[in-house]
Design a protein that fits this description.
Blueprint: E1 2-6, E2 12-16, E3 28-36, H1 39-45, E4 62-69, E5 81-84, H2 94-97, E6 124-127, H3 130-133, E7 134-136, H4 143-146, H5 152-162, E8 170-174, H6 178-189, E9 194-198, H7 202-211, E10 216-218, H8 220-228, E11 235-240, H9 245-254, E12 255-263, H10 275-278, E13 284-287, H11 295-303, E14 313-318, H12 322-331, E15 338-342
Parallel strand pairs: 8-9, 8-11, 9-10, 11-12, 12-13, 14-15
Antiparallel strand pairs: 1-2, 3-4, 3-6, 3-15, 4-5, 5-7
Helix pairs in contact: 5-6, 8-9
The protein binds zinc ion (2 copies).
The site of one zinc ion has 10 residues, from helix 2.
């Protein structure tokens, strides 16, 4: 089969690999039907993810059909349509029991797919702990609607959850790229009263305006004066999903005293925390890598029509043209939000 393989910093190619088989009783093999490209893949290709292994098949957000189910998987059978969790977690260790599945201590736990073990930019993928990490797609939900359940929407759901949003809160989400967009969808779901989405890119602002009319869409220059005028002098919850030094600063500046500031963005450099300037603001920072423990809930919300990230999918390529798909996603010209690959 063909698999899009990471070959070291800046290098990747479509290579030939054997079709995987279940190696453990909890493994399943999924025939991939649609797979997305994530910014984290680009971080791997930039050499910014040291634990990424050379030779690994990229891709950690995909949907498909169960081809083979290990002997311990009583609830899954060949032919089931499934979405895959970005984190293959064991469900049994201390961290999994607390829902901190990103920190699962099993060697194949946490974010391993498409990083340390072969992922989904391929015709087939082996999924460890498939009983916890595959979620069935209801018949009326399309592949496109289910595609973002395991990573983007799980990230947004988790970020909104740890943001401790109370009904009616003013929530500021910084960044209206795919992660910020999904986070804002989930913040609305979790009760945000006023939702402000801050984005510097004009195309992304117009995209959010078109697809998410309930949110106030502002530029970074507009965000701070607007939040200072908010009822309590700032946002009750800030979720930073943009990932630049400027957006990090804006996040805590826009927060009201005692607010929760959730850092979802993945930075490629170290940032300063100017504690003297923050003194007395008594902020709570929560930093992270998604805990994809609520994926089944996310799928329920998708099925109920309460979470719809499908508009983000703006281009789809056949697997043979995956190099072109990655190049387009890296350039991200106006008109492109998410790019997917169909084997
Ligand atoms: Zn991702
Ligand atoms: Zn675990």
């Amino acid at each position: 089969m063909k698999a899009y393989t990471y070959l070291g910093r800046g290098k990747s190619a479509l290579t030939e690999k054997p079709v995987p088989h279940a190696m453990h009783p909890r493994d399943a093999v999924v025939k991939v039907t649609l797979s997305s490209i994530c910014t984290s893949d680009l971080h791997i290709l930039h050499g910014a993810v040291p634990r990424a292994e050379r030779g690994v098949t990229l891709g950690h957000e995909f949907v498909g059909v169960v081809e083979e189910a290990g002997s311990a998987l009583s609830a899954l059978k060949k032919g089931d349509r499934v979405a895959v969790n970005v984190e293959t977690y064991c469900g049994e260790c201390y961290f999994c029991h607390h829902g901190w599945v990103n920190n699962c201590t099993h060697p194949a736990g946490g974010w391993a797919l498409g990083c340390r073990i072969d992922g989904g930019q391929s015709e087939y993928a082996r999924i460890p702990f498939a009983d916890t990490n595959l979620v069935r797609i209801p018949a009326h939900v399309s592949d496109e609607a289910a595609l973002f359940a395991g990573d983007l929407l799980s990230t947004g759901y988790w970020a909104a959850k740890i943001g401790e949003i109370h009904a009616g809160d003013t929530v500021l989400v910084i960044g209206a790229g795919p992660t910020g967009y999904c986070t804002a969808l989930c913040a609305r779901l979790r009760g945000a009263g006023r939702l402000v989405l801050c984005e510097k890119d004009a195309f992304r602002r117009s995209f959010a305006n078109k697809h998410f009319p309930e949110a106030e869409i502002v530029s970074p220059e507009e965000a701070l004066p607007l939040m200072k005028k908010a009822a309590r002098g700032g946002a009750d919850v800030v979720i930073e999903a943009a990932g630049t030094p400027e957006s990090f600063r804006l996040a805590w500046e826009c927060a009201r005293p005692n607010a929760v500031v959730v850092i979802v963005a993945m930075y490629e450099e170290a940032l300063a925390l100017p504690l003297p300037e923050m003194y007395g603001k008594n902020l709570v920072f929560k930093t992270g890598g998604v805990d994809g423990c609520d994926m089944a809930r996310v799928m329920e919300h998708i099925a109920a029509g309460e979470l719809d990230a499908a508009p983000l999918l703006t281009r789809t390529f056949p697997l043979a043209d995956i190099g072109e798909a990655y190049a387009l996603f890296a350039r991200r010209p106006d008109g492109v939000m998410k790019v997917a690959v169909r084997p």
